[in-house]
Design a protein that fits this description.
This protein is an alpha+beta fold and 436 residues long. Helix content is 19%, strand content 33%. It is built from 8 helices and 25 strands.
């Protein structure tokens, strides 16, 4: 096989996130060439790239080849041959050889029938899935929360949550089959990477760069096999993903309905600055940031041991004031990060999730935290504290993993109730005091 160095280098970059750095199966450290295709897999996700030059079947060691190509001039060609359990490479000014594996040991994707398939705007879908990633749970013991949920049908909806936060976005796209699938977070990152690295297919009538740049990028997606999805990026590459097994939480039933009791428009950079001013003391106060809306202003405050701090900003428009809420300051800062425009904050009831909206980004729901405001105290029913004997000491578990998911519980309860009634943690997962 003879191939341009730059093209082979681009192929290595395309495969970079799908080739595992460490794997119990050594064969996944190789990429397979042959039959006009190049393939890489981590056994959960497979990337298939079109490569007409690859006629002879062979396996190439990914890490060694990628490192070597950094120092080969990119304006020439490289000849690749496999023989006697070795693969050799020859280019102008150098040669290299590496051990290889038997081609038949590489995982093969069997032929699988499609259950349903459709075409849609890839720019919208990929962007929505990537925007949901920050809200995916990292707890491997709850796999259905560790991926991005696609609610297929008309319209397509994208949701993700970690138990304390949730993102949700409705897209102007449709799929011919109504279904819910959970795409692993790592596979979503691979989709985003391949989408960025593969070229757009120009319109057939394009006579300049402008139509190519502004044209919507159409992707083909198919539900295939027992629990897989295949996404085709034009004719250049495909990604086949093993979906997360299990029923997705009923995210959509958690979306508050009706009119909010409080809604305010605030300038995101000002709110972010106010939260950052109080976060040092908030860390000593179970991570709680308090927000009080009154007289067209928003007071952000935090309390610690013998400490208290407050910062006040103007709101652009507030309906339903006076009102107040308490949030985990880290979750709030995560949402505000990088936002430069107006954020809409909505409260639908005093115990349910708070809804944040910024331009065309997903809606983000954050569970409130119950605090003593001074003029009233939470009732016993409002405090969600397990009995002391139910808490097990486990120093190996991160604090954020100790609390059960309030949003997940609400998703389960929502199946039996017409309206969700949220239950929030009494303390943040970051600083929870144990009872002994």
């Amino acid at each position: 096989m003879e191939i341009q160095v730059n093209k082979l280098r681009e192929l290595m970059e395309l495969f970079k996130p799908v080739v595992p750095k460490k794997s119990a199966l050594p064969i996944t450290a190789y990429i397979r060439l042959g039959e006009g295709k190049a393939i890489a897999t981590d056994l959960e996700t497979m990337v298939i790239a079109d490569l007409p030059e690859a006629e002879e079947p062979m396996l190439l060691p990914f890490a060694s080849l990628a490192e070597m190509l950094k120092y080969v001039p990119g304006d020439g060609a490289i000849k690749v041959e496999a023989q006697n359990k070795k693969v050799s490479l020859v280019w102008s000014g150098g040669t290299a050889s590496y051990p290889t594996q038997a081609i038949q040991d590489f995982p093969v994707l069997p032929e699988m029938p499609n259950k349903a398939e459709g075409m849609f705007d890839g720019d919208a879908l990929i962007a929505a899935m990537l925007a949901a990633l920050p809200y995916v749970a990292t707890d491997e013991n709850r796999p259905v929360l560790s991926g991005v949920t696609l609610v297929l049908g008309s319209p397509i909806e994208v949701a993700a949550g970690d138990g304390f936060r949730m993102s949700h976005q409705v897209l102007g796209l449709s799929f011919p089959l109504e279904a819910k699938i959970i795409v692993p977070a790592h596979a979503v990152r691979i989709l985003g990477h391949v989408f960025a690295k593969t070229p757009r297919t120009p319109p057939s009538s394009a006579d300049s760069l402008i139509p190519i740049i502004i044209a919507k990028r159409q992707l083909h997606m198919a539900l295939t096999g027992e629990n897989k999805v295949r996404v085709d990026f034009g004719r250049t590459a495909s990604v086949v993903i093993n979906l997360i097994a299990g029923a997705s939480p009923e995210w959509l039933k958690l979306i508050p309905k009706g009119e909010p009791i409080l809604q305010s428009m605030v300038f995101a950079p000002q709110l972010e600055a106010a939260v950052k001013r109080v976060r040092a003391i908030a860390k000593d106060g179970n991570g709680i940031a308090r927000m009080v809306f009154a007289d067209g202003k928003l007071a952000v405050s935090a309390r610690g041991e013998d400490q208290e701090i407050s910062a006040t900003i103007d709101t652009l428009n507030t309906q339903g004031e006076p009102g107040r809420m308490a949030l985990n300051h880290t979750y709030l800062l995560d949402f505000l990060s990088g936002k430069q425009g107006i954020v809409i904050v909505s409260q639908y009831d005093k115990t349910g999730p708070l809804v944040f909206k910024y331009q065309n980004s997903p809606r983000v729901l954050i569970m409130p935290m119950f605090v003593e405001w001074g003029d009233e105290k939470p009732t016993a029913a409002e405090k969600v504290e397990p009995e002391p004997e139910t808490i097990e000491e486990n120093p190996e578990v991160e604090p954020e993993e100790e609390l059960e998911s309030s949003l997940e519980e609400e998703a389960t309860e929502a199946e039996e109730k017409p309206e969700p009634v949220a239950a929030a943690p009494a303390e943040t997962p970051a600083k929870r005091k144990r009872k002994r």
